[in-house]
């Protein structure tokens, strides 16, 4: 999220982990001016020390390194409590954008981006309100499927965006509930 937020606010990025970059941020993958800081799960601390950044934004994956990183530069841990974010996820994201706008003196642009998020959410809600189709939020990882339900970290898809769930049997779980292809077929 942090790279997306900084990109939207036109804030230059000095370094980032580059092992997993979504397609819409692919321009950062091979940019030599942006130092590759290792893996998303285990950043390269030596490279971070060499970079000497002005500010470090970290995710929950790096929470155990907060103390060490905060000795190097001001460090912000933008955290979303995924155990209870389903109804507030979009609001939390909007607040992160506003906070970054304040930090980088881009308050007006941040407010504009937040307004764009509101418009997009309203557009999606208008579409989902008219549709009868139902959906599963499914992740495929290492040959296994996991489904995320209404009260999961992706619950905002249902609560905020108004998508109708194909199954209410999915438990609230940070990493999703393991499911089979048969479960997907039955929910279809």
TrEMBL record:
Q: Name one GO cellular component term.
A: cell envelope
Q: Does the keyword Ion transport apply?
A: yes
- UniProtKB keywords: Ion transport, Iron, Iron transport, Signal, Transport
What GO biological process, any one, is recorded here? iron coordination entity transport
Fe/B12 periplasmic-binding domain residues: 1-188
Asked if the keyword Iron belongs to this entry, the reply reads: yes
Q: Which InterPro entries match?
A: ABC_transptr_periplasmic_BD, Bact_iron-sidero_bind
- PROSITE patterns, from UniProt? FE_B12_PBP (PS50983)
Q: Which residues form a coiled coil?
A: none
In the record, the note on similarity to other proteins reads: Belongs to the bacterial solute-binding protein 8 family.
Name of the protein described by the UniProt record:
Ferric anguibactin-binding protein
Identify the species of origin.
Answer: Vibrio anguillarum (Listonella anguillarum)
